[in-house]
Amino acid sequence: MTLKLTFIGLGVMGYPMAGHLAKAGHQVTVYNRSTAKAEKWSTEFKGQFALTPALAAQDADIVFCCVGNDDDVRSVTIGDEGVVNTMKAGSILVDHTTASAELALELDTACRNAGLSFIDAPVSGGQQGAENGKLTIMCGGEESTFHIAQPIMSTYAQAVNLMGQAGAGQLTKMVNQICIAGLVQGLSEGLYFAEKAGLDQNKVIDVISKGAAGSWQMLNRHKTMIEDQYNHGFAVDWMRKDLDICLSQGRKIGAKLPITAIIDQFYAEVQAMGGARWDTSSLLKRLKATD
Amino acid sequence: MTLKLTFIGLGVMGYPMAGHLAKAGHQVTVYNRSTAKAEKWSTEFKGQFALTPALAAQDADIVFCCVGNDDDVRSVTIGDEGVVNTMKAGSILVDHTTASAELALELDTACRNAGLSFIDAPVSGGQQGAENGKLTIMCGGEESTFHIAQPIMSTYAQAVNLMGQAGAGQLTKMVNQICIAGLVQGLSEGLYFAEKAGLDQNKVIDVISKGAAGSWQMLNRHKTMIEDQYNHGFAVDWMRKDLDICLSQGRKIGAKLPITAIIDQFYAEVQAMGGARWDTSSLLKRLKATD
Amino acid sequence: MTLKLTFIGLGVMGYPMAGHLAKAGHQVTVYNRSTAKAEKWSTEFKGQFALTPALAAQDADIVFCCVGNDDDVRSVTIGDEGVVNTMKAGSILVDHTTASAELALELDTACRNAGLSFIDAPVSGGQQGAENGKLTIMCGGEESTFHIAQPIMSTYAQAVNLMGQAGAGQLTKMVNQICIAGLVQGLSEGLYFAEKAGLDQNKVIDVISKGAAGSWQMLNRHKTMIEDQYNHGFAVDWMRKDLDICLSQGRKIGAKLPITAIIDQFYAEVQAMGGARWDTSSLLKRLKATD
Amino acid sequence: MTLKLTFIGLGVMGYPMAGHLAKAGHQVTVYNRSTAKAEKWSTEFKGQFALTPALAAQDADIVFCCVGNDDDVRSVTIGDEGVVNTMKAGSILVDHTTASAELALELDTACRNAGLSFIDAPVSGGQQGAENGKLTIMCGGEESTFHIAQPIMSTYAQAVNLMGQAGAGQLTKMVNQICIAGLVQGLSEGLYFAEKAGLDQNKVIDVISKGAAGSWQMLNRHKTMIEDQYNHGFAVDWMRKDLDICLSQGRKIGAKLPITAIIDQFYAEVQAMGGARWDTSSLLKRLKATD
């Protein structure tokens, strides 16, 4: 079945995601803040582009959005030229931005009031996952809505999961980021210690990565960490944005996050070192900074 | 080839390890502080037991040792009734205790002076790994010695690795424990947050465990953590002993371990809660303690 | 000189502060969210009360405000019934609320646009300081405005300081709270250790309080800490509100606050223990919680 | 009354302390590892020097000791040429070294066995306090012994306090160092934030130092901290030695010291930056290191 789809936000994630939708045969209209990129996309994928989110969303069955932060989402959805103003009755808004659970509830209400449905749907898997169509998507919303949107999202995902009501997608993504923060700092201290101790770091990882210390990060990041290479992966600036959301939410629900909080500050040190765009594994570089 | 082997220390690890040696057809003599257990072992595995380490080690080709801490090792090796006093020229001492790198160097020297060879060989894989013969062993010592001892250790190990000179086994084990501390705290904060946020914790783990937040601990410990079950696994008391070794070594080699240091203190809180024997994943229980 | 003054917010701080103004002979009109308290105040201090901030601020030479948080301030100043709507040209708005520096800049602009002057003026010294008229006030704003408002604020302050342009008062208050967080945790760990070590805690404080470990908190809080009494002083809920402001500001200006961030999380544990209204020194009680 | 006194260890503390004893008219014999310094001292203060601790201690009424660490103390007291071998029956050994409580108990027992009395007596007040005779001394031991030694120690102290049985002096000193660690980090984060916020740091300290954030460190260290001057005061190397003692003791008595533990690691970063001899207030410099 061919649907009319709209995609708002053509960053490193959104650009290929919207591309997958077009390649799957859907009729896709995109919007991007800088029109040049929207034009480039429409040429590459034979789709349409519009000059405002509201214009892009007219007649769409599903509107997808993947922008920077809460305020960016508000602007393109419930802002003056936002998609909610023009979406047709019964259509669905899917937000792929990693944002607050509060925003998800706010958009859910706005959509209900406008006769629309909403799903918060943050992703993990990074730029590579977006390009390969292998993202993992964590959704919050009504089951009936999810069942409509799920097959479409599968175009760019290896797993699309309904986690609960509106906001549950964002909350699940927060759990993911919280787990990563402590894990990467532990891994960094381990590799740092190994180097100081004069061990062959690669050999050490070979030996311990299958056991109780093993992790995705150890397996996928140790080589670049040992080589002091961080110009790749998930940027520290984004991680800090996400951790800010986690810590604010923790404050709201009474969840204490002591180590997450201090590692967020360690990432501030990485930013100060010039590492705003480095991969999150650059916590190791911070440990070496004072050597 | 049948060897004459000695095993010192029949704790939850040593008991089955020595058993594997006997079952492989070697002639094994054991020593244990409480003789009752040594007697039980000798009945079960048709081996010998001796009343002192020195007596147990006479004529042995290789002497294995797996006891509590540095001082325990000193006592059974270079102490008055220690094995070094009676081991025959050219034989090998293998220490499976997780201990300091300093001790490894001390024993290496003592062995050299006595015409013996030494390997420090701490293990990972826990009680289950010892029972199933699936331990991972991290060795420090001479290559020629390693090549003799390696096949014998393979009786109870899935991997036996030479990491470098004497002490390198202990240092590798330290890296392992350092990586675990941060990882488990991150996982605990994540699961705690998930519960507070009203998410289905098992579903969350299903979704995120394959991605960037994934780890052995997440896969193998989330169920018991969610069920608040900690009467299993690697005990907090042992973890604190190991982290003490890591932090002392860090002090010596100038390796900063900020998060390892504070998590060691969190484990002190777990001990104070009565969790001395709980699994290391009980950091989650600590987070809930003040709720 | 008798002035027409308005005071918005009659909490434990504002109530006595407004009282000092009335006792100094000024003509004071108050506003409070719950009118009962405003009425009580007007009876006690022979002043007026009004039913909205806007009504209270008519004809005032200076309007003071001391409410809960940023949003509360916005509501009573630039909200629909806020004071800025009715303040006469050339009059001054003084905000005693501990709030964000961003809010101070926002109000400064709003006042300029309305032909008014603004001073952010958070206080320290607590309820007792407010009652005794011994507060310390940290101001941000224009010097000429400060010179008019300073003598009036002196009615309830022992020190009124101009720290810089708008926002500088709030920023100074943040420095104060940041210094306190680390200090109180250090003091708590010290007293806790002393108890565990079996020392006479009072005697220890007698000896060390004059030296390099000495502090206002040690001098003024050790007795209640030792007695496990926390129903007094500066509430943990307020401290967390303030630390949230500090951490947000730190994020904005690139100031890393690792220990402030983690102690803020320790305060979350105190809240979870039921300590929302306890004094900030209750970090000691948190250390004991797991014993 | 003129006594025969012995002083072991002529470092920056011991040299002037022994000098005060001589100037008070006592007959003082000193020992120092490097004899040149002992000779210099004996010339300056018209005393004697000896070539071993044992020789120095013969006939002494009280033997004072102020050396580096536990092992140094053991060497000069119960070592082969230690003072305990030659001290006369009924004489007193006073240890001014900041050392472990365990050592204090060990020496107390050794002294009792030799018919001697022991007092552990660590000091605070720094080099300046030693030179001006204004130290604060925290003692552990028997009251009767204390009453004999107290007036002699007053020669170089403004306060000499008996805190309890043997070890209580050391434990009190630990409380002092624990309180300082958190306090100095809080102060550092505060001053750092102030600078980043563009405030006049000196003016800020003027305003907040009398209130709830005030401390000896704020009063006495803010100027040098603001000027980035750390070549003075209490060296980071010594602080780490002391914190190591605190953390080991905490481990023994079950006292959790989370922030002390992590700040000890921050001091490791200062050492790595080349700050081994910098004042403890150099935690501020660490915060700036990644800027």
In brief:
Four copies of one chain form a homotetramer. Chain A has helices spanning 14-23, 35-45, 53-57, 70-77, 101-113, 126-132, 143-153, 168-196, 201-208, 216-226, 236-253, 258-272, 283-289, and strands at 4-8, 27-31, 48-49, 62-65, 92-95, 117-120, 123-124, 135-140, 157-164.
How do the strands and helices of this protein lay out in sequence?
The structure is a homotetramer of 291-residue chains.
Chain A: E1 4-8, H1 14-23, E2 27-31, H2 35-45, E3 48-49, H3 53-57, E4 62-65, H4 70-77, E5 92-95, H5 101-113, E6 117-120, E7 123-124, H6 126-132, E8 135-140, H7 143-153, E9 157-164, H8 168-196, H9 201-208, H10 216-226, H11 236-253, H12 258-272, H13 283-289
Parallel strand pairs in A: 1-2, 1-4, 2-3, 4-5, 5-6, 8-9
Antiparallel strand pairs in A: 7-8
Helix pairs in contact in A: 8-10, 8-11, 8-12, 8-13, 11-12
CATH topology of the largest domain in chain A: Rossmann fold
* SSE run of chain A: EHEHEHEHEHEEHEHEHHHHHH
Secondary structural class of chain A: alpha/beta
Walk across the major sheet of chain A and give the strand order: 3-2-1-4-5-6
Give the biggest beta sheet of chain A: 6 strands, parallel
> What percent of residues of chain A adopt helix (DSSP H or I)?
40-55%
Could you say what the CATH architecture of the largest domain in chain A is? 3-Layer(aba) Sandwich
For the record, the count of structural domains of chain A works out to 2
Q: Average pLDDT value of chain A?
A: 97
Can you walk me through this structure?
4 copies of one chain form a homotetramer. With 291 residues, chain A is α/β, with parallel strands linked by helices. Chain A folds into 2 domains: 4-165, Rossmann fold (3-Layer(aba) Sandwich); 171-289, N-(1-d-carboxylethyl)-l-norvaline Dehydrogenase, domain 2 (Orthogonal Bundle). In chain A, 53% of the residues lie in helices and 14% in strands. Chain A is built from 13 helices and 9 strands. Chain A has a 6-stranded parallel sheet with strand order 3-2-1-4-5-6, with helices on both faces. In chain A, strands 7-8-9 form a 3-stranded mixed sheet. In chain A, α8 crosses α11 (236-253), α8 crosses α12 (258-272) and α8 (168-196) crosses α13 (283-289). The radius of gyration of chain A is 20 Å and the shape is elongated. Chains A and B meet through β9, α8, α9, α10 and α11 of A and β9, α8, α9, α10 and α11 of B.
